[in-house]
User: Fold these one by one.
Assistant:
Number 1:
Amino acid sequence: MDYEVVVGLEVHTELKTATKIFCGCSTKFGAAQNTNVCPVCLGLPGVLPVLNARVVEFAVRTGLALNCRILPFSKFDRKNYYYPDLPKNFQTSQYDLPIAVDGHLDIAVGGQTRRIGITRVHMEEDAGKLVHAGSITKSEYALVDYNRTGVPLLEIVSEPDIRSAEEAKAYLEKLKAILQYIDVSDCKMEEGSLRCDANISLRPKGETKLGTKAEIKNLNSFKAVQKGLEYETARQADVLGEGGRVIQETRTWDDACGVTVSLRSKEEAHDYRYFPEPDLVPIVVDPAWVEDIRRHLPELPDARQGRLMKDYGLSAYEAGVITAGRAMAEYFDATVAAGADAKAAANWLMGELSRQLNAAGKELEDCPVAPGQLAGLIGLQAQGTVSGKLAKTVFEAMWASGKDAAAIVKEQGLVQISDAGAIEAVVDKVIAANPQSVDDFKAGKERAIGFLVGQVMKETKGRANPELVNKLLRERM
Amino acid sequence: MKITRKDVEHVALLSRLELGESDVAKFTGQLNAILDYIDVLSKVDTAGVEPTAHVLPLKNVMRADEPRPSLPRELALANAPEQEDGYFKVPRILEG
């Protein structure tokens, strides 16, 4: 039978505030265990939480960027459950009156744009971190670090509008881009500041009723989202195909083994017994303040992609790649502002620059070549001062030394030779040294000229203008 | 009887409370007495009354996003039943 996959994603993103949501402890990642903790986030008796105003601002900004309605009256609730990463035995979260509801974002998959509904955005606190001795299923005890406890989180819940693993990945990528653009989260998946759980069910094609879902946790990279959902789709299809029933349960994605595993525990089905948080008073947002935040929203990824296509004639693909992350979009704009041709800037960013960043394992923020410097190199290339091939050599030297392109070209004598007189002598020498290739060319083997051009380039250490070499070779053979 | 023994046992389990036989009977009775009293309150006409989110007449109590010192780790861990290497040590989490 053919099944349709139905997926809804719950994304948790850590906000980049200086302090936790309800106390003044630092949110800095990587501190020594249990050093960013205080009586409030440890849930000691007699303490009172006080809401961090910046969290509300970031939540409203996020809600607006995701086309949500901001609820004028919002409150916190206690979500009660026992787990050692939660020192208070409840998580302070939002239940029936979240800060933002009814939004959407658009994704493009396979040339089709699809709108994915956003049910809600709510504020809550993060839990601590468990360090297991060995694996989660085998260890005899666990160690807890409460530094992360109380770090502000937004939970962003999508409608079950996603229909494939690929769409889930596209949704997550778009969401990450938006969160980065509006500067509310670093979205570093490897540091856990963007985490994803998925609800997934299958139903026969054409059926409108939802099937029984499984909740998949620990989908903490774009690859894990795609692989985990692909695996779970196949697993549920097998169960249904054999006439079985999918059990409603929580499963975890085991990235190393590439499977989802049931997380059975004696805890009964989710029964969180939410009730209003008596220690925090309601949030009433001023509509004028909301409008002010809306007016100051930066240009978002879709608008930026459209602008790059319209203003610079980039393809949807190129503009999409460049605007997928805020850092690259800004690097691009800065390079163009420094005088570079937009098409060339796009090619460098998507090609050589990305390649070098990947090879060095660096983020664009740490790129040793500044946008203005890249623009300088593109300028030299456009003037014909350096050839395309040598430009890569110059770029590598810029990467290594941090120097400007012009300085490197001068130092290393990499100026392209576009003077016919200087090249003619080399061309004649190469023709004399390679009679076989010359004969081949004359006999109609067009490919032979490629070899001869290569020989001239070799003799000139790559500095000869290749078009001119080609032209001169043809003339003189 | 709105609350049965089963409800009390269920809530006790969720709350990680171990109740004796006599406790279950006692709490079942007490909880039902509370709910009976709620029934009295339920007779009040509340049409047009907004649900109360908080008993205090306050809203928007917030603080600036400014760091304050955290606890020294020795103090943070002072009440931990068990600790190891600067961590709180807790029993294994998943049952077999």
Number 2:
Amino acid sequence: MQHDEDMIAAAIRGDRLALQKLLKLEKEKLYRMAYTYVKNEDEALEVFQQTVLQAIESIHQLKNPAYFSTWLTRICINKALTALKKNKKLVVMDKVEEQVLEMDSSADIAQQLDVANALGLLSEKYKTALMLRYYQDFSVKQIAEVMNCAEGSVKTLIHRGLALLKKNLKGVYADERQRDFN
Amino acid sequence: MNGKEISIKKAMEQIDVPEDRLDAIIEQAFFETSAAKKKKQRRWLAPAVAASVLFIGSSAAVLTASPVLANYMAQIPVIGNVFAIFSEEERGLLEYERFSEDVGLSQTSNGITISIEQAVYDGTKVTFTYTVESDQKLDSSAHLTGSPILLEAEGPTGGMEWEPVEGGIAGIAEILHLDEEAKQVNVQWEPVSLYTEHGEIVGDWKFEFAVAQLKNLEPLILDQKVSNNGVSVHFDKVTFTDISVNIAYQQLVEPSLLQDWQYVEAELLAQDDLGNVYPVPYNGGTTPGGSRTAEDLEWTATVRGLSPEAKTLTFYPFAHISRVAEEGEPDAKRIEFDAVEIDLVERTHSLIENPVFPELEEKQE
């Protein structure tokens, strides 16, 4: 999401209301990212809460407003991975499936759910790269910043991640038709 | 189409987002980080869910925390004065102890005794103290999991701090709930476990208790507006309890000001006639309907730890207005306003023009 750089600059220099507005704009994406890692609402909320706190405490360290989204996303991913390490527990996909199916049992939802499950089962690196590319709409360069790796590695992760998803789901990849990820 | 259409975006958008809870978490985070509370260990309460249902279905004893009833409760072991442990950093907590009621609930499970000691509700937040005692020596990682909830509140509602003390843990919990009309509120807490780095002891504890709100005097209506440089602060009313002073005010911004500036935030500082200066952290702000500008906000804020000897309390409003220049560094300026003095004895108020602003002594970390 592209934010008003002025608002980000204001947040960096200590305008708490500006930061609050920015976090509210990002909340859905952050929560869904967190949820994809930890797979339950309570823990996703906790990851979200820790992300918000960390953002408030360290916003002043952000040098360039242009990096706000990648900076915030990195905080969220780190918090989620830390939560996973702490818990080390098995993710019960069936439960997630039931919850969503209760809302709408259409075939399309079920298919998307398969995608979500398949994505959830990928290793962290593939999962992170794919979410950042196709959900956050980050460029390869931005993903490299978030994941702290070379751009070439990001492309490899996206290629392999997609290949794994396709193999597991035997489907046609929709996001790719709309955008070249290079 | 052959096979399924794979869309990560669509799949992720199916994840249900609890928007209200996320908003509440954000607001809570800003509220809590407005005060410097870093030394103690701190945990945030998870959002409360379906609180009223839990209350109705419960058969656990509900204690009305009146002093009379409390006297009937068994004496519980006390590990020092819990309020005192936490009052070093937090102004006004010792007054909270003075006016708090004994709760005196204590339960033991799997060798762990959890006791709720005292509780107080000042119309903005419920504060209660607890202790945890164990036969085993507890290290600094030990803390309780499972958060207390307020049956009247929704969403994430406060924070907990704890410290290891001899014989166990002493803790203090705060649950925010701004409702000056509520005569009492109900706290429910089912600690799940005592967590330590070396293991987790799960137990069966359940507490429910009511906390009466400290008596409010009738609110003093101020209806006093002060203006400077296109920003006005309108003092609405002030209410008093034995331990806190709550003030409601609005910031109103001339639309023309926002042609040059972007953000406005009006705050208060308070000083009593003895020279004590108090921070006035706000509990939260909202944009009222029908506002002329996006920067028009209504605030409530609370002074804690007011000296009992104080005869007057003066509120000094100031605002930061800021913008980001087209190129280069951001720009900000501070404007100050006339102050409003409250006569705490006579319950009157008066305007002080061109006041000398007091300075808040920052606490050393």
Number 3:
Amino acid sequence: MTDKSGEAKRSQTPKGEVPISIGSVDRRGAIKLLGLGALGAVPLVASARVMDGLVRDIVKGSVAENQAADTVPTREAGRIRQWTMVIDLAKCDGCQSQGTPPQCTTACIEGHFAPQPMEWIEVYEAELNGGGSQFIPTPCQQCENPPCVKVCPVGATFPTPEGTVLIDQDRCIGCRICMAACPYDRRFFNWGTPPIPPEAALSDYNPDHQAPASSGTVMKCDFCPEMARDGTLPYCIQACPNDAVWYGDLEEDIATNGRTVVKATKLVSDNNGYRLKEHLGTMPRVFYLPGHGEDIGRDPHDEGRMPTEWPWIERAEGAVTWTR
Amino acid sequence: MDTLNNWRERLISKTTRPTLITTYKYWLWFGFLLVITGNGVFQYWKQWQHGLYVTDMRDRISWGLYITAFVFFIGISHAGTLISAILRATKAGWRAPVTRIAEFITAVALLIGASFVVIDMGRPERIFNVYLFGRWQSPIMWDVMAITTYLTASVIYLSAPMIPDLALYRDRLADKVGVVRNFIYRTLSVNWKGSPKQQKLLGKAITIMMLVIIPIAVSVHTVVSWIFSMTLRAGWNTSIFGVLFVAGAIFSGVATLIIIMAILRRIYHWEEYLTEKHFLYLGYLLAAFGAFMVYVNLSEYLTEGFNLEEAGLFAFRQLFLEDFAAMFWFYIIGGLLGPVVLMLVPKTRTIAGVVTAAILVVVAMFLERYFIVVTGLRVPLMPYEAANYAPTFVEWSIFAAGLAIFCLLITIALKIFPMLAIWEMTEEHAADISDRPTEEPNMVGADIVGSLTSTERLPDAGPPAEGGGS
């Protein structure tokens, strides 16, 4: 049973092919489908999740086991994907040119129903040394040496064989030591009863997508492992109008921004890629290519971006929101 | 001249006074504490319903007054260890009247401190996940282990030396107190008859616990500090934190002990037993620890400040000059240097001076815990505006309830347990007068043996403190 569900998912992708390339074929279509307030489409996504969750729930023991044994997408026997993200800051203008809030954040919120004010991928604006600013979209850095995992008293946050860090909100006790430990400010707490739109309420809970959110627990960017297994790119990458974000697999050494497929390590090296707070030794799986939006013609002195919105919040009954 | 027996009878009557006599003032105080506790319980019920939303903690400053209270109370719990175990181990004779109170403070403060961790949890109903899924790699688990061990050890260390006194209460107060207390005395005095074998066993037990509890206590506040220092945050991630926390814990523990001693002394007229000498010695201890804390702080801030990093600069600015400057300087000047000065100046080397110093220390140490927790979290990790935190009414209410329950438990304990260590004090007094070239030197021993019934015989087997004296 367990194997079947995993097999079924894998069979959607032809063996040996990069699963993400499917997403790239119809990227714009995907954005429309998933996106940005297209009300009709959202329940579809959610219901797919419900089915998924149901199947998995029947067979699942503990979540961590489930992660480890059943759903690891292997390309060939013994090979486990190692998800990575490369963010090209030279192509990021915080969606100034679009006149919208950062589309990666918006799509993430739409897709994950991240409660307000959680921006699992947050576009920070940092000052440049010579004046002006750059935009830094910041998802969970998916550290290989994750400080958050080390401190968790109950193993509610755990590393997966795919090299990502997930949170089991069914186990989390809400002590928040992981939030104190994360050096990137990438963890979010449900301080109150989180806003849950009807479509998220239908979703069967799984650490892979974290919906529906539950009060008194921690959440964060999960690197969309379910979407990757299904051969789709994470919401943020699908939504980026400037193809600034790449998703890839370090095991196969491949990355795509939805338009082209490249060698991941070469992309990083050729463009002087770096990681945030490298000196801490956290070994993030998120790489940055330096820049301030110059590739798409952004003037570094053109500062500020539109504030993030949670358009579905009005559909969440009795929603409580807070500020960070 | 006072015979030892008279002295002891007077001590017993003074010690049993709170147990036997309850004035309206007691009930007034009791009611006052109940009201504060009630409000705290009500506010916690609100928090249970709405989640931590009712606090002012948010993602960026994700710990606040509750964790402050946790560190503060666990710190206070170090009163018992130092006074009782260290002074017992070093055979400091003057400790006898002080130990019992200190040990009660320890047990009670630990209970309150540990509760604040649960109060701070987002999902308190999942507390048992800590046992079901506990990972020993997590500093939180270190705390769970250390604190439960310390609590167990403290309760044993409190109750074991109390056995002879409880047996005395069992024998003397049987018809003066109700069923409940009689039951407590009978149970907890574990059939103590004062036989040589029992005395020997008790002496052994106390010695073992005394030696065991010192490293446990040191480990407790060290791992409390490691919750903070194991993170990658400026101001927290430093190896001196363990020392700072343990020293601070003993510092605030001694101060709390002084305050409670002063209150009990006044209410129950224990001037004969809790003398100026006791206060002064504790005051010197306070001053010594104050000076040591200055040294630790200096060492820490200079090391971090000499080659100032960006995050360190922010941490320093908010601490020394901006939002937290008032707190910080009160802590340094009032809380650390204050006791030193008060003990140095002959004019303030009095009970009033010591109590003043103690109050300064308790307030300062609370503020220190607060600014350590909040400023560490406040330093921005990414390019964002620093967040702010101000505890809400709910948080203050629950904190106040913590203080109230602390007082309440001690208040209740007064009605049940002997707050002065009768047998140890008698022993010490006996040693004291036998040291002196008194009128009837040979009568002392006879005095004890002759005048006591077998069940009340002095357990002179306690290895600690014998012949301590002056």
